[in-house]
Design a protein that fits this description.
Low-confidence stretches: 363-387
CATH class of the largest domain: Alpha Beta
Strand content: 15-25%
CATH superfamily of the largest domain: Aldolase class I
Mean pLDDT: 88
Helix content: 25-40%
Structural class: alpha/beta
CATH architecture of the largest domain: Alpha-Beta Barrel
Bound molecules: S-adenosyl-L-homocysteine, iron/sulfur cluster
CATH topology of the largest domain: TIM Barrel
Shape: globular
Number of domains: 2
Largest sheet: 10 strands, mixed
């Protein structure tokens, strides 16, 4: 008999599963709390459930979070985990502690089909969508690992950003279910404003997200005109800047915040001139709106060898930010965190079996290979090189 992974269920799904076992909905709520609020991994620990139910669950279900292959700790306190997703796929998640919050950056796919030229994940190609349990499992593991490690009875992760590997809106159904678990008061109880989906601009799914599960939205813009964006973010050939911006404006109605964030990766000599900044100002002002319906987050490019690109110099990033702010657009420059462990934006690479041959098309050499070492897990072989 196949066992169900309970991390795959939102509360309604778990209630349906419990019903199949002849149990009432309140049992599902109890179970959900044990799993997500208390981090229980064994049914035997769930002492307020009847012994007969615990025994039934043990034969029919599991609480299966992905296994850790490697943990790296940055000098700035960020922690990166490499999770084994089986069959040669591995994805990464990063915890970023700050004074007033703890942010977890998680992955939604093993690889990515979009293939942005400046993104390490894009250079790896695409293997598969992550399941709900594999997405939620990253949060389940990180939250309960950190609580134990820090000896905290309180919640450690206050914010989740889907800015790791993958394009979340191309794994829509699983991402939405996972978001529901994150927001559920019986699970992590995160505020909608503190859960952010970052997308390269899958227009129809931005609208759908506004209907199904509006959370904070970040859109990877990276260019001020279609000619340039077509090259940097190939999805632009399908959904142009104008269409993406219109979808963002529509999203403001259901959104939990009154702005959309535009991410803009600063690439030396590519998209970082005064002219590009002026074009952006004109873009966001189109349609008789002033600039305060959006914010810009400038991300200094995090280099990786295969990209052939370099980070804009600091003076140019500052000058670019000033043009936007002088035009009344709230603009921040993202602090680079965890770059000593390759955990900064766009450096998350994990390991994926590229079924799309994107990597070959982009001229990438192999990354680190993962070799199984018996039951204990996996180890990384040194044979292959990055970059
Ligand atoms: N696929 C989604 C989410 C994952 S990428 C998206 O593209 O939005 C998360 C953010 O990191 C995006 O804004 C992405 O453009 C940015 N990014 C990718 N590679 C980067 C790099 N090398 N340096 C800095 N930011 C990068
Ligand atoms: Fe995919 Fe986002 Fe990387 Fe582009 S930036 S390749 S959409 S993960």
């Amino acid at each position: 008999m196949t066992t169900a992974n309970l991390l795959d269920f939102d509360l309604d799904g778990l209630a349906a599963f419990c019903e199949q076992l002849g149990e009432k909905r309140f049992r599902a709520t109890q179970l959900f709390r044990w799993i997500h609020q208390r981090g229980a991994a064994e049914f035997a620990d769930m002492t307020d459930l009847a012994k007969s139910l615990r025994e039934k669950l043990a034969t029919r279900a599991s609480i299966g979070s992905p296994h850790i292959i490697r943990q790296s700790i940055s000098s700035d306190g960020s922690i990166k985990w490499l999770f084994d997703m089986g069959a040669g796929d591995a994805v990464e998640a990063v915890f970023i502690p700050e004074q007033d919050r703890g942010t977890l950056c998680i992955s939604s796919q093993a690889g990515c089909v979009v293939g942005c030229t400046f993104c390490s994940t894009g250079h790896q190609g695409f293997s598969r969508n992550l399941s709900v349990g594999e997405i939620v499992g990253q949060l389940w593991f990180a939250e309960h690992f950190l609580r134990k490690h820090l000896g905290s009875a309180e919640r450690v992760i206050s914010n989740v950003v889907l800015m790791g590997m993958g394009e979340p809106l191309l794994n829509y159904d699983n991402v939405v279910k996972a978001l529901r678990v994150m927001l559920d008061d019986h699970a992590y109880g995160l505020s909608r404003r503190r859960v952010t989906v970052s997308t390269s601009g899958v227009v129809p799914m931005i609208d759908q997200l506004g209907v199904d599960c509006p959370v904070a939205l970040a859109v990877s813009l990276h260019a001020s005109n279609d000619t340039l964006r077509d090259q940097l973010v190939p999805l632009n050939r399908k959904y142009s800047i104008a269409e993406v911006l219109q979808a963002c404006r529509r999203y403001l109605t259901p959104a939990p915040r009154d702005f959309v964030t535009f991410e803009y990766c600063m690439l030396d000599g590519v998209n970082d001139s005064a002219q590009h900044a002026a074009e952006l100002v004109a873009l966001v002002r189109q349609g008789n709106k002033d600039g305060n319906w959006c914010k810009f987050n400038l991300i200094p490019f995090n280099p990786f060898p295969a990209s052939g690109l370099t980070r804009s110099p600091t003076e140019r990033i500052v000058a670019f930010a000033k043009i936007l702010s002088d035009a009344g657009i709230v603009t921040t420059v993202r602090k680079t965190r965890g770059d000593d462990i390759d955990a900064a934006c766009g450096q998350l690479a994990g390991e994926v079996k590229d079924i799309t041959n994107v990597a070959k098309r982009m001229g990438r050499r192999r990354t680190i290979a993962i070799t199984p070492v018996g039951q204990g897990g996996v180890s990384l072989s040194e044979g292959a090189i990055r970059g």
